[in-house]
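Structure tokens please, single chain.
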Amino acid sequence: MKAIYLDCFSGISGNMMIGALLDAGLPSEYLRAELAKLPVTAYKLIDKEVIKRGIKARYFNVEARQWFQPSRNLRDIHKIISESSLTDTVKEKAITIFNRLGAAEAKVHGVPESKIHFHEVGAIDSIVDIVGIAIGLEYLGIERIFTSELHVGSGYVKCSHGRMPIPAPATAELLKGIPFYSEGVKGELVTPTGAAVVACLAEACGPMPKGFIIQQVAYGAGSMDLEIPNAVRLYMGTVSAGVEAASQEAKIIETNIDDMNPEIYGYVIELLLKHPGVHDAYLTSIMMKKGRPGIKLSVLVSANKVADISRVILRETSSLGVRIMDCDTVHLEKEIVTLETPWGQARVKVGRLAGQVLNVAPEYEDCKAIALKHNAPLKEVYQQMIADAKKLLEAASE
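Here you go.
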């Protein structure tokens, strides 16, 4: 699977992320054409190569052509994005990031999300940055995102709320569950937009995942001149579908439900399983107080995604609260192997421990498609896939 690993040794911001995507192969002309689908104007894009402490990097920024920008709420931003002709994938990613920003601002100010006006976050540059990131990820075919720990910088930053310590309040809220540090570099290295992108899209923040094969290295420049290169380093490459990030802390989120339309459960499970960082989601039948039958919804999730997934559960179900528990997990090293069979290609999941194969499991959807196409019993297709996979693995080990 195509993946990126972001080395945030000098922080991350929206424009740094787009600069890195451009440096990794996103065509500038394509980005401009896609951004033109947004119903916003009065801005100019800056895209150029710069040198940051001897490192060549791509610098991207948005320059407003008029000093006044309207203060927008979350509904305004949803309307701008959803009414554009951008792809559904781009719209979904961009709106997810803005929702996370809105939730953080609302928490900081103690008001409902509907009452939040985004100020800097709602300005044209943030809209272009967030939508541009979603465009770049789709164009490059990125399926998985990992990051290092985030270097946030130190000192104070001036924002619409006054002079605030770094990380700024909204950024600090967004960094819940995300490891970060400061090595004394003065300046705001992680912006709210950068923190929201990591919080929403990154599966894990820590060492590069085992089995990540680097194919390209790109740099996205920031606006500051520091004692270190003000840039984010993007490694683009591939990682096996089952690869887990190293040292990944997990949590279990649970809630009991007894008053929801049963038709909604399947939708909620499907929605949860699409979110980065969700490892499993399942339902258990339970008996609740007063003898009422109910359903327990359980989600196994990376620790840095707890806030996001809790919000999804509370938004999409009738639950009034969730409980969160620590969870120790042990995983086999997983690899997806594609087999050439008499029926065509099919995928098999292989589980190893210390290099020894312990489990071989065919992909259900592939086996189902073969069984239907060739009018073969599904159980026989399964058995054949397992036998073929074992022969292949034995031959490879000789």
